[in-house]
Records
---
Amino acid sequence: MSRLFIVFLMAVGDFDFRFFKSVIVGASARCGLAECDRNCHFGTSWNQVYELAQSAQTGRETNGRLVKERTGMGSSSVAVSRPTGAKGAYGDTLATYYHQRDSETATVSWSRESTFAITRLRSDIGLPATSNPIPAEPAIHVSIAIQPVPLHSYQLSIDHREIQVPYIPAFGSSVIDLQSNPVCFVDCGFDYVHYHLPREGLDEIARDHNIQPVESYKFSICEDDLVIAQLTKSALPFIGSQNWPSILALDQFSLILGAHLLQRYGGVPRLPAVESRGLAPWQKRRAAEVLREHLDGSVRLADVARECRLSVSHFTRSFKVSFGVSAHAWLIRRRVDRAMQLLIRTPSSLIDVALQCGFSDQAAFTRTFTQIVGTSPGRWKREHTV
């Protein structure tokens, strides 16, 4: 299966694409960190995805179709790659519950003091003992197995009740409420990616669509969830890496996963899309100013939304309407525009231009520039310099 993120196959009958689209319209048709030469892009057209969704929902074949857009992809380091003093079950804190020494983690502040996190834990020998009890917290814990777990090798207890765990195939996922006292034991090597989604952030997404916060999420074990599987496959190369895409990209990733969780596991009813008229002129100016001040992508969607006096999801939709692309895709284009100016007006080397424009290295800059402009920065400079 291609690493370009495969469009949600709407053959998964209970997935309400209209709701999903309304939550993070403009975030990404690929629904996450679509790897393409180790870079990230979130600007693919929603119209293409929506057409595929409609086709699947009416029974027409969509399996295996990809939505691709030739738009730039950029890379910069996420601010927090290994959190310390985590206040929730993620990162090294989660690792200690499973008797592991460390973790591969990326986090982003989600709402107020809550944190969305992706944590990868792996072991060649399994757990030395039953996991320590995870303190109850208002959050949903999503786990996905990167490698299969044999039958009878995984033991799980929820609220002091033993759960029968079947054979877990690669990319089988589980959804657990962290207020249900989960405890487990794995007697074989494992490789898991865990998502930490605070209820506070999920509730904010719901309220933004005039939906009451979800009281309970459906417990799931060994679920064949295409959306979570593909999100994970796309994010996997970046977890624990210094080449994580920008915080903006991770923000959009978290919104997509949160929206999916609400719809599939929170029982949110099917709703018409929430329409947006776009940003007001002053909001467009302010959003552009803030993003230009952070070409390296070190600004969060919540920060830009706050400057525009909007919720994150409302801002995301409105930005897409006003600018035609997501905030992350717009920012990547501005990086390339800035690079063009520097290539023509200064004698700076390619690596200097890359760093000045917010790219992590020259290779990332060259790939992104080529994908947007159609030629390498070195060749473009030669063609445009007298």
Note: Residues 91-265 form a domain with the Jelly Rolls fold (CATH 2.60.120.10).
---
Amino acid sequence: MIDAIVLGAGAAGLRAGAELLGKRLTVLVVEARDRVGGRVHSVEDRELGRVVELGAEFVHGNPGELKRAKLKLEEMNGRQMELRDGELRDVTSQVHSMLGKLAGRDISGLRKCVSAGEALPKGTFETWRAATGITILDGIGATEMLHIFIGSPEHEVRPGATGRPVAGYEARILDGEGREVPPGTVGRLAVRGPTGCRYLADDRQRKYVQDGWNVTGDTYVMDADGYFWYQARSDDMIISAGYNIAGPEVEAVLLAHPAVAECGVVGAPDAERGQIIKAYVVLRQGESGDAALTRALQEHVKATIAPYKYPRAIDYVTALPRTETGKLQRFALRRLAAEGADCKLAS
């Protein structure tokens, strides 16, 4: 059994203290020739036989030697992007940012790319593969589970899908009453396997662990082949004029527009519709957030997914609120939207 206490990254605005429970696992075998780069802390856990990733930046030269390296995303001429015989791990939003900085970089030895922390949009997946020839391995895990529990090996990846349960884990979709729903039905993701947690003096123990299943707080749909497709965090779903709209779906479409570097989409209070879709957008250098671009982005969303999913309000900002691990803090954006706060326009 694992004897450890961890603190979550606080993407939802609440940190979680949990006692971790589990069995011995072998997750990743790193060869001596490998160098691994990404925005993670690294702690070697010999009981688990794996590297536990907790939230800063590192590069290491072999499995027995862990070294810190001060690498910034803005400084892409460092070891992080000049990899040979290596693996790159990063949060999805940072993968998107790297796309514009690949030109002239030596990534000839980059063999594997892994994305986690945020759902990987299909557009980002396809653009990265076209630019590098490498298939990004997506996955979902949780601090409370200490492991990625849904993902796919490279030959089974389906663009846009998170994947299927990792060996040793089970996953299902539940309705609001805790009943399993059939394939194709949107609902709450529940998972169980060789790892788990017990919250410490926290009411969330009753919500997160139900009948032996860990309810992650994510909204998913499972297809007929057992692949799981991310919709949104359950508390990030937007209900506008009776429609249920997943903010990440709108974000993925906005990110596919050439003027957009980053974005976050949340529901903003509205007297008539209950909520409207509001987007916070960081523009690429040289772009101007004027009325013409706002209309162009709105029309882009309408034409790509559905007219009722377009953002009725767009604020252009210089940066988005993120956790130490790079996850988008949508709760902070929801607070801004609720307060009607003015945002600094990007130059």
Note: The helical segments are 92-98, 122-132, 204-208, 247-255, 291-304, 330-339.
---
Amino acid sequence: MLYKNHKKTAILLLSTLSISIQAAHAGSSFSSSGQVNYTINNITNQNNPGSTDGLEIAALFDLDANQSYSSSSGDGSFTITPDQLNSVSLSPSAGSNFIQTFQVYGDVNNGTVETYQLALIDLNLANNSSSDIYDIEISLSYDLSSETLGDSGQSGVSIDYYTDNDATSDFTGSELIETFSEPLSLNNASLNSTDTLNFILSPGSTHAIFSEIVIDGSLTAVPIPTAFWLFGSALAALPALRKNQAIRKNIPGSAV
């Protein structure tokens, strides 16, 4: 009876170890995002206090299809959110803001994923008045995050921002974060910051702030054959089987 119990234990060990090791192989994935927040902090009409009748503000999100690409093989897949144009008119008043998040996710269990995506997130201002002069303050906040998981993965998120006006050419910045995965390990990174811009918008003039977010990622996953795990499980169970044989020899009346 004792021998039979140990035999059952060894068989259970073999099957459980095989299943658990196979389950540990979860492929590779990445999830990276960039968020931009434009906030109107102050608008002052120097010639007509309190009036913003001639001021227009619009925000735009768009993907640059000419500089973006993606490819996959096997069961590799990726998701881009959002994947279409978004244009919004903002109220020309303090406190108005535009928040846009751009995210790319990739996943593979047997194959590859390669992607490079460029998103444009802009804020455009136009003074349509013939006499009003606006003193404007705008803040740009951004939040970058990236994580990778699995056998072989890499992802990065970067932001570059600038204006189209020589008078505010010093309003510029660039940041980058990258993550790399190792087998069965998770790596993540994040970064956030805020910059502030002050400028004068004279009659009939325009001003634009440009933010470019790039997200790239690459994944590779190749499952190890089931036979390999079974072989490894058998090797791991050998000590238990040998112990069972020794116990069996000490049981009176048992056959060797």
Note: The chain has a mean pLDDT of 85.
